[in-house]
Amino acid sequence: MNYFTNNDEEISLIKFIAKYQYLSVNDVKYFFDTQKYYKKRITNLVKKKYLRRIKATLVLDELGIEYIKLFNLEYTPLNRNKKYYSRLLYISNLGAFFNKAKTVKFTPSFCIKDKEMFTIKARRFVGILEINRFDYLTYHISEEHDNRYLTSVIYDIQKEKKYKNIIVLINDKNRANINDFSFGMNSVLLIEDNEKNREKLKYLHSVNCAKIIQEKYKNKMFISEYNFCDYTDYKNKYINMFYFLDTEKINRIKYFLRENEDKNVDIVCSKDLEDELKKELPNCNYCVVDLEEYIDKERNIYD
What is the pTM of this model? Predict the structure, then answer.
């Protein structure tokens, strides 16, 4: 046993690779609090045959596999099929990014046991992001994916029966027609896939909306029972909060305004979202707020 590492960060890394099969060397940084020496630690793990390098990725080597089997830990044998490689590497990247997140738990698609057996042709989702106890079936559309793949994601979401909250991580939101991503679900979040937005995802459902409403509106507002708004005075004020671009919420507001031309809807959002939302909902009233100021990041702890 003395031959095995007893460092918690290194053990966490080995267990992660055992589950996800591959880890890009660029994603190792997510496992170590001290960034200064982690490259030397990886070199040492490779030297001692815990890990092995395959081009720019890390996989388990013989001692790493022995360690995992000795303690009966979760282990996924290495899939060497080239057509799955980029998908597996992306899933690993997403899992690594949220590895230490206190408010997020990521379950990769190949661990979702209530779904049909994973094949690249059957379903397109990459996993489930559980954020502050809300489950989001998650999809990924990269710059390598063509419009045919984008259409297949739309068709895949249409088939979904269990999950009512969807996240689509896409390289460029301009590629997607918002009307095509409305399915009658609770929410469909169309999010450009970058580090800034992934960091924001950690605080989904963490914005103190009640405090914003209290500060921005003099009259008393109530949490709405209607599906087309979040808050209302049950007279003539209808308020919606947008943290990300939610295509389902946009569609519900559009329908409400078509049926009630004399009504007004207020939208509370960040400056980044204002221009995008105005393209879809030009007749709404906008209240621009720095939502980051209303997040207590220290109190949001994932159990």
Answer: 0.93
